[in-house]
Structures are given as C-alpha cells and as structure tokens.
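Notes from the pairing session

We agreed to fold both candidates in a single pass and log them together. This is the raw record for the first candidate, unedited. Please don't reformat it; downstream parsing expects exactly this layout.

Candidate A
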Amino acid sequence: AGKEIPRNKAIAYGLICSIYGIGKPSAFKICQDAAVDPSKRASELSEDEELRLVEEVGKWTLENPLRRMNKANCALLLDIKHRRGTRMAAGMPVNGQRTKTHRKTAKKLNPSRV
C-alpha cells in the first residue's frame, strides 16, 4: 500500500495502525492468507514473507481510493436526496439516534461528511 509498517509492532497490529481501511478482522485475514504469523514483529519478517504480505495487501482497496469511494457514496446519497445524505450534509445523526436533547453534541461530533 506504499506505507511503512512500524518495525517494533506485531504484523497484524502494525497493519491496523498504519493503513487506512484495515481493521482487526481484515489484518488477521491478510496474515492468514499470506501464511504469516500475526504475532511476529515486522523486523523479524523474511523477504519471502514480506513479498507475500505485500501481494495480499495489494488485493484490497485501501487508503486514498477507499476514502474517495466513501466520499462518492455519501455524495450519491445527497444527490438523490436520500434522508441519510441530507442528514450527513447537515452533520446530524444518520441512523435514527435521539436528537431532541443531543443535537448540539451530534453537530459537534459529526461535521459535514459530504
């Protein structure tokens, strides 16, 4: 993904911390598919293991393409005037949360996402 993984962390947690779009389940899945021990440190990897990891991570949509995709999805919801899109644009809660008393907090925590 063009990013450096911290050398002193376990591979799975290094992937989680350094690459946008990889969470805990996907990091362990990548390690499993690449046949690499997830608890192994990045500095202990062999060349072959590194290449397998790079190849496996290359199959995923990560970093800027993923950010663009998420932004495009939000913009599409706004274009078609979907309730979720308009609420995202206003910075309001989207999934039916309470707004009678918590609207101000919601607007602070959810800036416009479109």
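Candidate B (folded immediately after A)
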Amino acid sequence: EAKLRAEMEAKQQRVEERLEMGRKYAAALAQKETLQATNAELQRRLAAYLAGKKGEEGPQSTQEEGGDHSAVDLDQRYFTGLRQVAENRTELERVQLNYDQVALDMKTRLEQKQ
C-alpha cells in the first residue's frame, strides 16, 4: 500500500510539473508576442526618427565638407543600439536560466526535507 501511495504521489508530481511547464510555456509565448509587438513599434518609431533626422540634416550636410559623417554616425549609433539589444537579450536568457536552476534546486531541497 505504501508503494502504491508513493507511485501515485510520483504520478501526481509529474502531472503537476507538466502543468507548470505548460503554464511557463504559455507565459513565455505571451511574453514573446508582447516583445515582438513592442519591437515592431520601436523599429517603426526609430525609422520615423531617423527619417526625420536625415531630413533635418540634409541641407546642412550638403554645405559641410563631411556631410556623410552624420549618416555614418547615425548608422553606428543604430548598430550600437542593436548590439546592446542582443547583449541584453543574452543576459536576460542567462538570468532566466539561473533563476530556473535556483528554483529547481530549492524545490529539490524542499522535497528532501519532506
């Protein structure tokens, strides 16, 4: 009877873990959709901003000797921003993996105490 009870508890635990994984997956998908929508909006705003800046600097840059310098500067700032986004995304993934590992370790310790 104790063996049967242990098997039932193990099955229940696996079911709960699967449900939790499903919830985490659904939350991750929702977050992904939100981030993609935010990214699209920010890229539209950035394109509009860059187009506006290019329009403002257009007449001035033809008068200056280094007229292409401002466009190069904007391109460099844009790519620096993109690199920062990629680095931040990598850092976020690292932190999330660390969080998941710590949570799993704590759950294991709790189970061992019970």
